[in-house]
């Protein structure tokens, strides 16, 4: 076999490999390098400080609160999005013009920019003139300070994320449901299996690869939340909605503490990587591939 023929596959993947290395691999290593140094983003990189930035990071109560906010936001967003999307998919997994219209309606928020979504929800959650408080007032319920109360602000952002994400997740679930062989359900009917038993014993196990995939991408996306926080709350009130990415942005591009912000970025990378690894180790063997 000629040498050029054996090298052809490597030549074909070389452009993608170079682009991936420049824009993904190199920034990760450079972030790790910056986390070990002090830099103000203007002058040359200053002296090596080792793990000093990490020590300052974990000695800062504000950062620990931000880390807790990120974990809470991710847990609530992923669990609610997956649960609501699965219920919608089970309901919409049928033929008919009405169900097709509903699928398109719930998917539409996914294609709208987060900036537009954030501005609309800021109006909806306005404590004085917002639509949500108007509805609560009609129902005889007290108005809520959706974004200005530390007790409700994070949950308000979770509500926005769930509203935007359920359409995409529901359609992926529907695709997974439609890939399940019909003869499996026919066999269950012959065995007189009830609806809930069929769901638990057949549908969910056969849907496990789809569920596995959606949990992973939703978890990573939730840790990367930025636009809604930057527009709707700016991390407030009282740091109650500040998450890791917005915290990195603040210290990197507002306070110009690039080494400190890079250390926070390394922590974010480590947290996401560790949670993903744990998720794969615990659940990958329970996935039913046909």
TrEMBL record:
The transmembrane segments are: 12-33, 73-92, 104-124, 154-177, 198-220, 258-280
User: Which residues belong to any copy of the ABC transmembrane type-1 domain?
Assistant: 67-279
Query: Which PROSITE patterns does the protein's record reference?
Result: ABC_TM1
**What's one Pfam family here?**
BPD_transp_1
* PANTHER family for the chain: ABC TRANSPORTER PERMEASE PROTEIN, INNER MEMBRANE ABC TRANSPORTER PERMEASE PROTEIN YCJO
Q: Which organism is it from?
A: Paenibacillus contaminans
Q: What's the protein name?
A: Sugar ABC transporter permease
Stated membrane topology is:
Multi-pass membrane protein
Q: Which family does it belong to?
A: Belongs to the binding-protein-dependent transport system permease family.
Q: A biological process (GO) annotation for this entry?
A: transmembrane transport
The answer to whether UniProt assigns keyword Transport to this entry is: yes
Q: Name one GO cellular component term.
A: plasma membrane
Taxonomy of the source species: Bacteria, Bacillati, Bacillota, Bacilli, Bacillales
């Amino acid at each position: 076999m000629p040498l050029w023929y054996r090298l052809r596959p490597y030549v074909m993947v070389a452009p993608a490999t170079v682009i991936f290395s420049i824009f993904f691999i190199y920034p990760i290593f450079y972030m790790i390098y910056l986390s070990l140094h002090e830099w103000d983003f203007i002058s040359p990189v200053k002296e090596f400080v080792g793990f000093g930035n990490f020590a300052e990071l974990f000695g800062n109560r504000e950062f620990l609160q931000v880390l807790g906010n990120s974990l809470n936001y991710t847990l609530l967003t992923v669990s609610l999005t997956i649960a609501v999307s699965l219920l919608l998919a089970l309901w919409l997994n049928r033929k008919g013009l009405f169900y097709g219209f509903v699928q398109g309606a719930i998917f539409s928020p996914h294609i709208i920019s987060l900036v537009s979504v954030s501005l609309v929800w800021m109006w909806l959650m306005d404590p004085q003139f917002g639509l949500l408080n108007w509805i609560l007032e009609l129902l005889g319920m007290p108005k809520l300070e959706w974004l200005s109360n530390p007790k409700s602000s994070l949950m308000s952002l979770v509500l926005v994320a769930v509203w935007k994400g359920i359409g995409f997740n529901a359609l992926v679930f529907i695709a997974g449901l439609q890939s399940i062989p019909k003869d499996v359900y026919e066999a269950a009917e012959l065995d007189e299996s009830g609806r809930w038993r069929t769901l638990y014993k057949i549908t969910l196990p056969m849907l496990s690869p789809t569920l596995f995939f959606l949990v992973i991408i939703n978890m990573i996306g939730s840790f990367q939340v930025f636009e809604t926080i930057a527009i709707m709350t700016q991390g407030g009130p009282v740091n109650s909605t500040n998450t890791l990415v917005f915290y990195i942005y603040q210290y990197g591009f507002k306070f110009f503490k690039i080494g400190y912000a890079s250390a926070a970025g390394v922590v974010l990378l480590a947290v996401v990587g560790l949670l993903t690894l744990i998720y794969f180790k615990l659940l990958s063997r329970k996935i039913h591939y046909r």
